[in-house]
Amino acid sequence: MKITKKIRLELVRRAAAAKENAYAPYSNFRVGAALMTDDGSVFEGCNVENASYGLTICAERNAVFQAAMHGKRNIIAVAVASDDDVFITPCGACRQVLAEFTNGSAEILLTTPDGKFQSVKLSKLFPTPPALKKLAGNHNT
Ligand code: THU
Q1: For the CA atoms of 105, 106, 107, 113, what is the dihedral angle to 10 degrees?
Q2: Rounded to 10 degrees, what is the CA torsion of 8, 13, 65, 130?
Q3: How far is 135 from 119, CA to CA, in rounded Å?
């Protein structure tokens, strides 16, 4: 599926909307993500923090897990939004989790609150994903 300007704008808008549901009382840093899979489905996520800080889930992984739960495993684009004026990029853990469900050509749309965005390929942010053999005969893979 081709990622058009219209799709990019929609993902940017939906990432900003998802940010509104962020639960970030500890960092006060709200993040939203919206991704599209190859069939055109969109899934959103926000960061959800915890009093035990390390249990926090980032917006990007939250969105990826929503997609996986719906059986969608081929992500083609992801927008990430925060309240910061600089273009934030996914953390290392999120880059790796995204890599599990994309080929390297997936687009990461980095955004600012005024609606500007920059597109960068996941393969640039995470060039050498681990390549493990998937188990033959496991029908859940
Ligand atoms: N966070 C995300 O959700 N995504 C990012 O790309 C950067 C970091 C969250 C984790 C934590 O809740 C807060 O932002 C501060 O790190």
Answers
A1: -160
A2: 40
A3: 34
The label of the residue with tokens 């681990």 reads: 130
How far apart, in Å, do the first and last CA atoms of the chain sit?
23
Q: Find the residues whose C-beta lies inside 6 A of ligand 1.
A: 24, 27, 29, 31, 47, 49, 56, 58-60, 80, 88, 90-91, 94
Distance 4 CA to ligand 1 centre (A): 27
Look up 60 and say whether it is catalytic: yes
CA-to-CA distance for 134 and 120, rounded, in angstroms? Answer: 28
Radius of gyration of the chain (CA): 15
Long-range contacts of 55-58 (CB under 8 A, 24+ apart): 56/26, 58/31, 58/33, 58/90, 58/91, 58/93, 58/94
Please, what are the domains in the chain? 5-125 (3.40.140.10)
The predicted model scores a pTM of 0.94
- Interval 5-55: pLDDT, tens: 999 999 999 999 999 999 999 999 999 999 999 999 999 999 999 999 999
Catalytic entry in 44, 60, 100, 107: 60
